[in-house]
Amino acid sequence: MLFTDMLARAARANDSLLCVGLDPDPTRLPEPWRGDASRIFDFCAAIVEATADLVCAFKPQIAYFAAQRAEDQLERLIAHIRDVAPQVPVILDAKRGDIGSTAQQYAREAFERYGADAVTLSPFMGFDSLQPYLAYKGKGAFLLCRTSNPGGDDLQAQPLAALPGQPRLFEHVAEMAQGPWNTNGQLGLVVGATRPDEIAAVRARAPRLPLLIPGVGAQGGDAQATVRAGYAGCGTAVINSSRAILYASASSDFAAAARQEALRTRAQLNAALPAAH
Ligand SMILES: O=c1ccn([C@@H]2O[C@H](COP(=O)(O)O)[C@@H](O)[C@H]2O)c(=O)[nH]1
């Protein structure tokens, strides 16, 4: 099944725009697992089981696993998601970007080793650095466009004086992704919830692309303004929250607390949807 179809089906089935981010930090695991990196799988598996019926996607962030030499736990976790939530797509947040021959290896890692349905990529090196991922038909690729961090301004907000209309760099990325780069309908864009006005600027340039929107929850983005700016019917919004859900409680009730926070966030996002969607 195509990534975009899987995403739309999960969003409909679970009535949800919420993506739960899996960013397991051993120092924040509940007692008695705190500090024990060998419990990353157990922690994330419990979160997945507690929220599987509330989400449109899961987004494991690869750095949290690789930094702990826990790639084997990431493999097990994605296999576990397939078992307990086969309808929910997995977006591997890896933010890769490299020349074609190296990108082939990264694409193989994401789609063959881990079996992800989509991956996040930096578009900074241009179209040929994206092509190896697009060779995996049906898989998705979300390009960093307007990121949620303050330093996103340093490059992304700069106008490209050489282009007609002098679009800002992130606007140009959106136009390329909606147009000539999207050879097989596999692309989406990453835009931060910390900048709802700019989500709207991206949506205007990319009306049909799925937007992956991190930044609600721990980063303080406005969830409802994000939905209003990012949701466009055919171009869906996948709104990620990681720490606010993962660490809703530091005690043994962490999975139940994560479920409550996911329920609360899903309701908040749905409240901002237009009446007939
Ligand atoms: O612009 C971006 C791109 C990616 N991220 C990632 O999303 C999550 C956010 O985690 P929270 O705990 O909900 O803040 C994290 O994995 C980031 O690497 C982002 O925040 N902003």
UniProtKB/TrEMBL annotation:
The active site is at 95 (proton donor). It comes from the Bacteria. GO terms for molecular function: orotidine-5'-phosphate decarboxylase activity. Residues 17-258 form the Orotidine 5'-phosphate decarboxylase domain. Keywords: Decarboxylase, Lyase, Pyrimidine biosynthesis. Signal peptide: none annotated. Its EC number is 4.1.1.23. Pathway: Pyrimidine metabolism; UMP biosynthesis via de novo pathway; UMP from orotate: step 2/2. It catalyses: orotidine 5'-phosphate + H(+) = UMP + CO2. PANTHER family: OROTIDINE 5'-PHOSPHATE DECARBOXYLASE. InterPro entries: Aldolase_TIM, OMPdecase_AS, OMPdecase_type-2, OMPdeCOase_dom, RibuloseP-bd_barrel. Pfam families: OMPdecase. This is Orotidine 5'-phosphate decarboxylase. PROSITE patterns: OMPDECASE (PS00156). CDD domains: OMP_decarboxylase_like. NCBIfam families: pyrF_sub2 (TIGR02127). One of its GO terms (biological process) is 'de novo' UMP biosynthetic process. Belongs to the OMP decarboxylase family. Type 2 subfamily.
